[in-house]
Amino acid sequence: MKSYRKELVFKTESRRKYVNITSEVERCLSDSGIKEGMVLVNAMHITASVFINDDESGLHHDFEVWLEKLAPEKPHSQYHHNGFEDNADAHLKRQIMGREVVVAITNGKLDFGPWEQIFYGEYDGRRPKRVLVKIIGE
Ligand code: ZN
């Protein structure tokens, strides 16, 4: 069995952002030489997500509105977590949107359903943060 590991780094200019990272994961898969197996992609920080959905800007706007209803950023004082930090909402948003995705690899390609794309979801950005790509197979 072969294995491959890489950390991708993202530094978004805004506090919240969605980044389509599908092509970067595909580059990792190509570099790994693995044709059959699984890829795990996970956020390495507890205020960011990796998830699969449609690359459609209206939907991303809807995510923002929906998450702000569930866990509004402000007022910061509404959260017990915000003693020395102001990112309680980011922890909650990440919890809903998820930590990781696993995708099957078939014939050297990500074996997606229709319209599936991999996203990095940032909820407390403006600093470098890492995503782990781990691929196993042969
Ligand atoms: Zn925190």
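^ zinc ion complex. The chain has a mean pLDDT of 98. Residues 8 and 131 are 5 Å apart (CA to CA).
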